[in-house]
Amino acid sequence: MSPTPIDYNYGPRSVAVGDFNNDTCLDMTVANHIVNIIAIYLGHMDMDATFSNEKEYTTGTGSTQYMVAIGDFNNDDLLDIAVANSGTNNVGIFLGFGNGSFKTQIELSTGSARSIAISLANFNKDTSLDIATVDYGTHSISIFYGYGTDYFSTPSRYSTGYDSFPSALAIGDFNSDHYLDLAISNYGTNNIGIFLSNKNRTCTNQIMF
């Protein structure tokens, strides 16, 4: 069955894929920022790449989502969704039930950060997934350390510089110490910032290229 097309005025801004209902078929979640919802499309096992009609979950009035990411936050082997809600200054967490449906949004405050990018990784080598955000409004990045439940630490924030307007991030081990680091594209200052992760849930100050 072909899904109902995304309405022209929904404003799809980000998409991520994963198997939400454990049927070995890839599914999609789409951040529709104009109407403040994420939509779930469940994939079918056929050669035409068809999907079910969407299921919608609200991210809150004025949330203006910029990006979605997928991972298992509560260590139940089921995929969850994280959303960077720039308009309401929070990260939205949707915990998955494993059948293609999700709990209502849990909000992690980002203060006045206006986060526009989000990525997931295990920065401190425990058993829990962490969340990194790019904070356009405060010229910084933030890391929420996970506890393997629906709880996270208060964000650890690191400056990317005055008027840097960071816009995107990538994650990798740049110094071969087996801890994941962050690379940030700073649109406003025309440079790339590197934050090296330490063992104690901290990062070095930004190294600029």
Describe this structure in words.
It comes from Rotaria magnacalcarata. The protein has strands at 12-18, 27-32, 37-41, 55-58, 65-71, 80-85, 90-94, 106-109, 115-121, 130-135, 140-144, 156-159, 166-172, 181-186, 191-195, 207-208. It is mainly β and 209 residues long. It has a four-stranded antiparallel sheet, with no helix packed on it. The N and C termini lie far apart (49 Å). The mean pLDDT is 93.
Write the layout of secondary structure elements.
Blueprint: E1 12-18, E2 27-32, E3 37-41, E4 55-58, E5 65-71, E6 80-85, E7 90-94, E8 106-109, E9 115-121, E10 130-135, E11 140-144, E12 156-159, E13 166-172, E14 181-186, E15 191-195, E16 207-208
Antiparallel strand pairs: 1-2, 2-3, 3-4, 5-6, 6-7, 7-8, 9-10, 10-11, 11-12, 13-14, 14-15, 15-16
Helix content: under 10%
Overall radius of gyration: 17 Å
The portion of residues forming beta strands comes to 35-45%
Described by the principal axes of the CA atoms, the overall outline is: globular
How many alpha or pi helices?
0
User: CA-to-CA gap between the ends?
Assistant: 49 Å
Number of strands: 16
Mean pLDDT: 93
Query: Which structural class matches the secondary elements?
Result: mainly beta
Widest β-sheet, arrangement of strands:
1-2-3-4
